[in-house]
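help with this.
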Amino acid sequence: METNFFIVATYSYLLGSIPFGLVLTKIFLKKDIRELGSGNIGTTNVLRTGKKYLALFTLIFDLLKGYVSVFITLLYYENLTSYSALSCFIGHVFPVWLKFKGGKGVATYLGVILALSYKFFLVFGICWLVISLLFRFASLSSMLSSLIILFYSYFFENNSFLLVLFIFFVMILFTHRENIVRLKNSEENKIKL
């Protein structure tokens, strides 16, 4: 059991820690995304470079690493699925290669919940779009949508992933703490849809 836990935690963390936003901007723009915009390595900041295709690929690859990590675990170590999901997310947020300064984790979270249940993915996507259309804040949409997933799991699913979804919600609030301050002070940038 301990060996399996170590194996799952290791490959999940390492997959999660691949900084695709940084890698793609280095390759295609010859720039360090950490020195642009907010300094974040995620999709939203890559979008600020004006290269929508790079932002799209960042989103896809960050999503895929969450999905692949959990998918592998479901196949071979099903009882450790929640640990895999958390390890991958932690890898993205605190990557060892970048002195533990990573992204906010929403795209990786999306990949994780897609692997757990396509219903989670659909509910999150619909809620994110609706909230974004209403308020035009990506950060608010992400935080509220992750909260909605928690409630959806409680009321409509078998609740086997309820604890890990709660932890994800808390961690997403943590990674968006600066956004929360900006929202409170009416200083958060709106998105263009």
About this structure: The CA atoms of residues 104 and 176 lie 7 Å apart. Residues 52-76 form the longest helix (25 residues).
